[in-house]
UniProtKB/TrEMBL annotation:
SUPFAM superfamilies: Nucleotide-diphospho-sugar transferases. PANTHER family: UDP-D-XYLOSE:L-FUCOSE ALPHA-1,3-D-XYLOSYLTRANSFERASE-RELATED (PTHR47032:SF1). Residues 86-290 form the Nucleotide-diphospho-sugar transferase domain. Keywords: Transferase. One of its GO terms (molecular function) is transferase activity. InterPro entries: Nucl-diP-sugar_transferase, Nucleotide-diphossugar_trans, UDP-D-xylose:L-fucose_XylT. This is Nucleotide-diphospho-sugar transferase-domain-containing protein.
Length: 302
């Protein structure tokens, strides 16, 4: 069990297997929604320009990256283009260099710097490999951005940039899935079937439950920087009702939204005769991500 959690990004190798939410953050007073200052005009304008409006949701497809992930970000955008989904999305940049790179490539309307006061610690602008000291602070920043967006009444459609979009119908499918049960407040991709969620691709409505999930995961990472973002969110979700009858959490089909091992090593779902909606190049470190995407003909940029 421990090795499965480590390999899935649930815990770093040094983490204590017995960790729980209470053991890290202790007993807290009754949770209340936070009161953030309004976002800057620049952030508010960028978000408003890139929101997709559905019947009951203001949906923002968003990613968080630094310039060390610039090539993956550009490949992510190219996959959106090929799926005709590139009209509205917003990348929150950790550093000015990524803003400059995206602007130079014609994507200036789809990038905004993360305000300094959103961060909890200084971040690196280089490519962060899993298990590097700079890795967990960067994943932590993703949660901080999503939390702020929820408080702006945005339904957040979050994607890591080492993901390739494969289907033009993915947005419609996700809205259908999100709306198919009145109780559903969040959709998560999976790392292992019905066991560990993957925090690299999800949809969250701006509900109090989701705000509390992110709050608790942020507190965990603030107290224990050796716990990854994915590990922190899984710890919190472990304590939530996950009954398929009434849970506010719905899981996305692992074959339609496969992680790297399933797609690149086991050829799922292609060997069963259908295409995935995304491919996530996780379970690969450094240049192995790019090589796997190239070998699968999913690396679209020069």
């Amino acid at each position: 069990m421990r090795s499965e959690k480590v390999n899935a990004g649930y815990l770093s190798p040094e983490s204590d297997e017995s960790l729980s939410v209470d053991s890290i953050i202790g007993a807290e007073e009754a949770w209340r929604p936070k009161a953030f200052d309004p976002p800057s005009d620049a952030v508010a304008k960028a978000v408003a320009a890139n929101v997709k409006k559905s019947k009951s949701n203001n949906v923002l497809l968003t990613a968080v990256a630094n310039n060390g992930m610039a090539d993956y970000t550009l490949n992510w955008i190219e996959s959106l283009k090929r799926c005709k989904l590139d009209d509205k999305y917003l990348v929150f940049a950790i550093d000015q260099a990524l803003v400059d790179t995206m602007t130079k490539n014609g994507y200036g309307d789809h990038v905004i710097m993360i305000p300094e006061d959103w961060f909890h610690q200084k971040l690196d602008d280089k490519f962060a490999k899993w298990q590097d000291k700079s890795y967990t602070p960067i994943t932590h920043s993703k949660t901080l951005v999503v939390e702020r967006l929820l408080y702006m009444d945005i339904t957040v459609w979050f994607s890591d940039v080492d993901i390739v979009f494969m289907s033009p119908e993915i947005y419609n499918y996700l809205i259908f899935k999100l709306s198919s049960r009145k109780t559903t407040e969040a959709l998560y991709s999976q790392e292992t079937e019905q066991h560990i969620i993957n925090s690299g691709f999800y949809v969250m409505r701006p509900t109090d439950l989701n705000k509390k999930v992110l709050h608790d995961s942020i507190v965990i990472q603030d107290h224990r920087p050796d716990v990854t973002q994915q590990g922190a969110i899984n710890m919190v979700l472990d304590e939530i009702n996950l009954s398929y009858h009434s849970s506010p959490i719905a899981l996305l089909d692992l074959a339609l939204f496969p992680q790297g091992r399933l797609y690149f090593e086991r050829n799922i779902p292609v060997k069963y005769g259908f295409q995935p909606m995304i491919v996530h190049a996780n379970y690969r470190i450094g240049e192995e991500k790019k090589k796997s995407l190239q070998d699968a003909k999913l690396w679209y940029i020069d």
